[in-house]
Amino acid sequence: MSVVEANLEHDVHAQDEHEHHEELNFWRKYIFSEDHKVIAKQYMITGIFWAIIGAAMSVVFRLQLGFPGANLSWLKPFLGKWITETGAIDPNFYLALVTMHGTIMVFFVLTAGLSGTFSNFLIPLQVGARDMASGFLNMLSFWFFFVSSVLMFISIFLETGPAAGGWVIYPPLSALPQAHMGSEMGMTLWLLSMAIFIMSSLLGSLNYVTTIINLRTRGMTFTRLPLTIWAFMITAILGIISFPVLLSAALLLIFDRHFGTSFYLSEIYINGEALPNVGGSPILFQHLFWFLGHPEVYIVLLPALGITSEIIATNSRKPIFGYRAMIASLMAIAFLAFIVWAHHMFVTGMNPFLGSIFMFLTLIIAVPSAVKAFNYITTLWRGNIVFTPAMLFSIGLVSLFVSGGLTGIILGNAALDIQLHDTYFVVAHFHIVMGAASAFGFFAGIYHWFPKMFGRMLNNTMGQIHFWLTFAGVYLIFMPMHYIGIAGFPRRYYQFTAFDFAKSFTDMNMFISVAAILTFFAQFIFLWNFFYSIFKGKVAPANPWKSNTLEWTTPVNVGHGNWIGEIPAVYRWPYDYSKPGAPDDFIPQNVPHSQTLESNFPHENAYIAQEKEIEAQNYNDQFAAH
Amino acid sequence: MVYLVGLLLIVLLGIAVAVAAKLQNVMGNIKSASDDEAPVPNNKINGALWILFLIAGSIGMVWSYLSAEAYFLPEASSPHGRETDSQFWFDMGLLTIAFFAVNFLLFFFAWKYQYKKGYKATFYPEDHKLELIWTAIPAVIMAVLVFLGFRSWTHIMSDAPADAQVVEIMGKQFGWVVRYGGIQDNKLGNYNYKLIDDNNSNPSGIDYSDEASFDDFINVSEMHVEVGKPVSLKIRARDVLHSVFIPHMRVKMDAVPGMPTKFWFTPDKSTEQMRAETGNPNFDYEIACTEVCGRGHFAMRLRLIVEDKASVDAWKQQQKPVLSQILEANPKFISKIPERLRAKAMDYAPYVEEIDSTTATTGSATATSTSFR
User: Fold this and answer.
1) How many helices (H) and strands (E) does chain B have?
2) Residue B159: what pLDDT?
3) pLDDT value at residue A615
4) Cβ–Cβ contacts within 10 Å for residue A528, how many?
5) Percentage of chain A surpassing pLDDT 70?
6) At residue A498, does pLDDT exceed 50?
7) Tens of pLDDT along A22-73?
8) How many whole angstroms separate alpha carbon A500 and alpha carbon A487?
9) Domain range list for chain B
């Protein structure tokens, strides 16, 4: 009888497991996959694709700025009629290039590419889940992003060119096709693409938050979560609240463009015609845009900060200093992010009283940011630092975050912003603190989790060379831009020869352009390393970085469902590195305190009693019986 | 030629990187892990590079600042400009200290605490007192900076003094139209965007049902203001967003279609003075656009001439009121002016034999309007 019973149990058990293991066809396994790891890689490849395009665009317009008289006819095969007869870039297309560079980098590379890759890849693995809360919505989120990408890509090749009003697309310039050719079909596609992008982002964010709250494994309390997860969760919340406001701004713009409304338009005379629209305000768009726009820069930055926390701790062989302070500062930054947006609008003509309020709130944000920087540095102190390429990029990120963040203090001062708004000082500031820092976070993440993604190692030496060239390059490009900004040179200028006060910038601009071109080429070291190592890299060990977090407890080639058998339970926080008394310099999260008596602190011995409780928890294994 | 050399250098660099990487791989396979091998190759080199970068970077920063100084704008030509400049450099001084100090610690620690086999890192997860200290100190510094900024900002954004020279500056694709209130009443008349008519000399849409408009004149290339006396700019735009930027005066304010804005400042250095100070006899104050507005955004230049009262008045005398220009080109325009004002409007009409006027007034030159014929 017991044999029969045993068989019955076995059958029931096997049936449950097999529910999730019917063999999927090629399309559902690799293309329309619902597996978070596949989706993460799809985001990553798309992000890299867009990064190459966005960076190439910046090289083209830097050619114009650095070598104003140069003959660029050799670009004709790529840019066609956008190179004039004399070999110069068409001034209309110059504006299109800077607009698309910004749009692509901020949204497609550093939001979708960065969050989409690492939130998707790491959340289930680090919280101990089989997959995201909804694999289906996750799959949709990527494919909406893909559609959005296609639309934006197509817009680049239109006869009238892509959107060209700056990445902020302020109306009336973006609302009136007659104001600029980029405001014709290019702007329509931009808006359509972004509307779908926002849908994708929301689907993703909702999934991330739900998974983190609901699908943590046994024993994974919130204060045992790695800082990457905290950062991804807070980033997702930022996105959920702020992206819909961009959608409304975009919708109202679509109405003004196509349905005769006047949300943003009032008293306009253009191309010989007085338009009928009255009552609207361009300032309304700016408020709506920047209500997303400011949280957006933190959406870009926070995942990179989370990744850096993890990598610095692991490679210093030390706990991240001030874990709770790091969480508190993430929350403070996120909260403050919502109430500082109008520091982008000090000189728009809005009520100066608002300027005072936003100046005050903006300068407060410097405080939690400073705390984070100090905590990273203290983590290095008395560490035993291993310079993996990921670690190099993480340390570089801290440097860039500090350097770029400091100039934010100047710009947040409304009185000082009068002179510096819309000059290259601003361009230098945000490229260093957001663009470069997050790009470094992207690189660091790839270097660190590549073994987990592909089961192979990237070449370390190439990675280190890639880092030093890029780090030097970024500083060489953006430091001089501060000087040009102080000297008053405005943004989005095709050339600077029309004004006496700007004529003397030739040398500095040339220097910047040369640095930009060299840094661009240095990225090919990474691209080669990346694609080569996917196929021919050295096979990775299970835990190459000797890290504590849960993703390293899966098999080297992670399959669907992440863990074979039970998902591990978690008993401690992820930062027990170099614990006094421990035989090794790391103790993974799934090692119970009952097994580390020699290194437990006195209060930790009390946790041993809770271990049975943890193991008996009704855990959220999606593969278990429903 | 330069491009070819550049391209070859890049290819050479690429080959060098590939060789270095391959070499490391080969060496890694040959050497067995020696006692002080770090878990990744080149650890010591990378540690040293942090210090090298620190030193080279610091020298580079100092050198770049010293060589860039020559490009900076001369001392501001307005009191508020000098005030914000000195606050800027004070703030930058503080920030530069933080920049060097924090980056130094980062790079120094990275080098000093590089991997040493057998060394155990210090388990130091938190220190509440330390956190409090480095939260409080930045907070206090921020508070001071905010206060200084607030003080300057409220003063700069305060209402213009009553005796300010009022000048309207309107942005359009792609230039500026400056309008003065005229030498008769020194008062800007109303405008209405529906009255804008580029073909009929009225790019600003001046509304001639308001008699204050009659003597208004415009200029599309120059703005003349009196030195030492406040200027109140009335800023507007007629098509898309523009922004009035006067770099030497430290003035910036967006020009918004449908929403007039304003900015006041006191130009206390004349153009002539600047020509002497900078040693450049061709120096001119310039007004630029700093809100992307389309193809010609980079070329919206207006000259600002700051001079003594007599010169400004003389220049104003020479400007023709817009109404005169309109009537000269199109005498029938008089019928668009409200009847009660037509007599006054006729003062601005050019002196011609026949004037198609429906009023029974003496439509010819009178003593009051000699200067603009």
Assistant:
1) 8, 10
2) 96
3) 86
4) 17
5) 96
6) yes
7) 678 888 888 898 899 999 999 999 999 999 999 999 999 999 999 998 999 9
8) 12
9) 165-346
CA distance A93 to A99: 10
pLDDT tens track for A418-447: 999 999 999 999 999 999 999 999 999 999
CA dihedral B361, B366, B367, B369 (to 10 degrees): 110
Nearest chain A residue to B237 by CA distance is: A268
Residue A359 tokens read as: 């100046």
The answer to whether residues A524 and B14 touch, using CB atoms and an 8 Å cutoff, is: yes
Contact map slice: A 434-493 vs B, CB within 8 A: 459-462, 464-465, 468, 471-472, 475, 479-480, 483-484, 486-488, 490-493
Q: Taking Cα atoms as reference points, which of A424, A434, A530, A529 lies closest to residue A474? A: A434
- Residue pLDDT, tens place only, A188-241: 999 999 999 999 999 999 999 999 999 999 999 999 999 999 999 999 999 999
Fold observed for domain B165-346 = Immunoglobulin-like (2.60.40)
Residues A469, A312, B142: CA angle, nearest 5 degrees: 90
The answer to whether the bond into A172 is cis (omega within 30° of 0) is: yes
554-593 of A, contacting B, C-beta below 8 A? 575, 577-580, 585
The C-alpha angle with vertex B367 and arms to B363 and B368, in degrees rounded to 5, equals 90
What local confidence, expressed as pLDDT, does residue A374 receive?
97
Q: Does A137 touch chain B (CB under 8 A)?
A: no
3 state DSSP class of A316: helix
Partner residue opposite B149 with nearest CB, options A359, A403, A524:
A359
Residue B231 confidence (pLDDT): 97
Q: Is the pLDDT of residue A17 over 90?
A: no
Quickly state the pLDDT bin for A579 (edges 50, 70, 90).
Answer: very high
Task: Determine the average pLDDT of the residues in A72-81.
Answer: 91
Give the residue extent of every domain in chain A.
31-539
Q: Is A385 close to B120, i.e. CB distance below 8 A?
A: no
Q: How far apart are CA A159 and CA B373, in angstroms?
A: 50
pLDDT tens string B220-243: 999 999 999 999 999 999 999 999
Q: How many CA atoms lie within 13 A of A369 on its CB side?
A: 28
Closest listed residue to residue A576, CA positions, set B53, B183, B121: B121
Cα atoms found within 13 Å of the Cα of residue B245, Cβ hemisphere only: 30
- Please check whether residue B257 is in contact with residue A267, taking contact to mean a CB–CB distance below 8 angstroms: yes
Residue B36 predicted with pLDDT over 80: no
Q: Helices B79-112 and B43-68 sit at what angle, rounded to 10 degrees?
A: 160
- C-alpha–C-alpha distance, residues B73 and B248, integer Å: 7
Structure tokens at A476: 């060489």
Spatial strand order of the sheet with B175-180 comes to: B217-219, B175-180, B165-172, B231-237, B261-265
Q: What is the pLDDT of residue A19?
A: 46
pLDDT of residue B358: 52
* pLDDT over 50 at A346, yes or no: yes
Half-sphere exposure of A527 (CA within 13 A, CB side): 12
* Residue A265 C-alpha, separation from nearest chain B C-alpha, in angstroms: 7
Q: How far apart are CA A355 and CA A182, in angstroms?
A: 32
* Residues of chain B contacting residue A406, judged by C-beta atoms under 8 Å apart: 95, 98-99
Taking phi over 0 as left and psi of -120 to 50 as alpha, with beta for the rest, B186 belongs to left
Fold annotation for A31-539: Cytochrome C Oxidase; Chain A (1.20.210)
B108: tokens are 């120094």
Assess contact for A456 and A507: CB atoms under 8 A.
Answer: no
Residues 124-153, chain B: which have Cβ within 8 Å of A?
A: 124-127, 130-131, 134-135, 138-139, 142, 145-146, 148-150, 152-153
